[in-house]
Amino acid sequence: MFGLGPSRRVVTPQVPSEDELLRLADEVTATPARKTETLAMVKEGAVAQMQAEAKRLDADAWMFEAPRFNPRALA
User: Which phi and psi (to 5°) does residue 70 adopt?
Assistant: First the structure.
């Protein structure tokens, strides 16, 4: 840093080949489709988990229908 002059390195840009440009274009256009597909899969998974949890809660609902302990019934 001290005593060194400014860097005079010249960087020449790499020009991508036509095949690379076509591959990149395909990736860019495929991204929204993959995003939509991924969101649909996540949504399906979440809905399936919620339905399973709802079934489990329905199966346990009998425990919460009435009070477990009624002191008036003992008297």
Answer: -125, 100
